[in-house]
Known about the structure:
The chain has 399 residues and is α/β, with parallel strands linked by helices. The chain folds into 2 domains: 3-42 and 297-398, Aspartate Aminotransferase, domain 1 (Alpha-Beta Complex), CATH 3.90.1150; 45-294, 3-Layer(aba) Sandwich (Aspartate Aminotransferase, domain 2). It is 40% helix and 14% strand. It has helices at 12-20, 45-53, 68-82, 100-112, 130-138, 163-168, 187-200, 224-230, 245-248, 263-276, 282-292, 296-316, 339-350, 382-398; strands at 32-33, 95-98, 121-126, 142-147, 169-175, 203-207, 239-244, 257-261, 330-334, 352-353, 355-356, 373-377. It has a 7-stranded mixed β-sheet with strand order 2-8-7-6-5-3-4, with helices on both faces. A 3-stranded antiparallel β-sheet has the order 9-12-11. A two-stranded parallel ribbon has the order 1-10. Strand 6, helix 8 (224-230) and strand 7 (239-244) form a beta-alpha-beta unit. Helix 3 (68-82) packs parallel to helix 11 (282-292) and helix 7 packs across helix 8. It is globular. It starts with 11 loop residues before the first helix and ends with a helix. 48% of the residues are buried.
Amino acid sequence: MNPDLAHLQPYPFEKLASLKQGITPPQGLNHIALSVGEPKHPTPSFITETLIEHLHGLGQYPSTKGIESLRVTIAHWLANRFSIDQKNIDPSCHILPVSGTREALFSIAQCIVDRSLPSALVAMPNPFYQIYEGAALLAGATPYFINCDANNGYLPDYEKVDETTWKNCQLLYLCNPGNPSGAVHSPQQLKDLITLAHRYDFVIAADECYSEIYPNEQHKPTGLLEASEQMGNPNFSRCIVFHSLSKRSNAPGLRSGFVAGDSKILQHYFNYRTYHGCTLSVPTQHASIAAWNDEQHVEKNRQLYRQKFTDVLSVLNGSLNVSAPDAGFYLWAQTPIADDEFARQLYQQQNITVLPGSYLSRTTARGNPGKNHVRMALVAPVQECLEAAQRIKQFIQSL
């Protein structure tokens, strides 16, 4: 067996299941899950209908590059959403469809990391999406965790990274907007990172799957490719971004996304993917075209999340140290007691599941930035989220 498999840690939800084991919550209270970031809003019917309409496409093998009309649609969406000059995004070389961002974020490390270098590092935020860590380990690299704490606005503290680390870094995972905090990098921070990538010869892989859930229509999160073009790097050298329909269009089961950016990197990644074999079925690609072409359902989606944040925070105000995120659908709340104990007692007393922040983090020389935090995913319907907030407040008052 691959010896690197031994380095993988249990997934956060495995730890959560162990934490809840043996506990019987109150039978009179329905269970409310705020732990998993799985959208619960209905998938738009036009996406489903388009998928069904093209089921005859199951009779053909899909190509690794995907159908041209999908790549053209994605190129138009990228240009419009991030104010990028359309001529700088060539659908034939700057875009690759993928089976959701999870598999792509994992496999990109297998393509990029040079495992012959014993000092190879893959840098990532801490707390983080655990796929980043697993991808680094199975690519033969060492994960390097950059803490995201309240003192730095829950963004990675890049100033604490020394020059030797940057020199050994081959890949930097960027989560923007962040999971779990929802913190958003400024355009200047993105430009500074691109400058570092060119100076120290590493690739930036920006996970932007939460970029379409934000509170203010006039202040959209800036994308890495957008910042790249603004700073005079229109070929997106050393920059690749990952987008998905899972959160944007409430279609996690469609498993549809794309990678875009540096054409040289994507050519190597394309070669890798011809062996990797994760391709989108033709019906899925047509459903994806329909989804990327429509913004009305995305705007309605944002409105629902805004309402939930407003309602939930109005209840929790004064009882829990938490505020609305810059983007995304998580609340990253500080806890009055240890995060795992908070989660355990909340489940025991109120039948609500939240995810302890320490399960999303690793302990470094500067501590564990997820400690004494919990992540709450406001993915359930509005009334269910409001009921959860009222129960959480009652629980806190009992401590």
